[in-house]
Specification:
By secondary structure, the protein is mainly alpha-helical. The chain has one domain. The protein contains five helices and three strands, in the order αααααβββ. It is globular, with a radius of gyration of 16 Å.
Length: 149
Amino acid sequence: MWGKYIFLAWFGGSAYVTMEVFARARSHWSMFVLAAVVFISVGMLNELFSWETSLVWQVLIGVAVATLAELLTGLVVNVWLGWGVWDYSKMPGNLWGQICPQFTALWVPLILLAIVLDDVIRWRFFGEEQPRYRVGQWTYTIRWGVCSL
């Protein structure tokens, strides 16, 4: 079981840092840790909620988890330790320079991607239940990497 969570943490952390390097040309090791924690936390939503829970709700809950984790991490690495990994203090609506609505909105597609990737990895590599998602009245099932109705 530990192997599964180590792999998921590595995957989530590596994927996020790779995206950040492409977007900003830099990252920080603390972002790997933050992304690993968020990826595992978002993946655990399936442990708390049934497959019948709307994908929209899963994404919104995941965004809230990611934003809270970003705030707490920012308070530690940027405010307390003074590492200056990021600073949103010039962004409208920021909270202590650690989170802001504009970057919180960026979590939406990342969390959606994280939910699907986590589910597919758990299904294909660890023999867990085949992913399916409810959006409105529709249910989508992942079959061999292809989404179908």
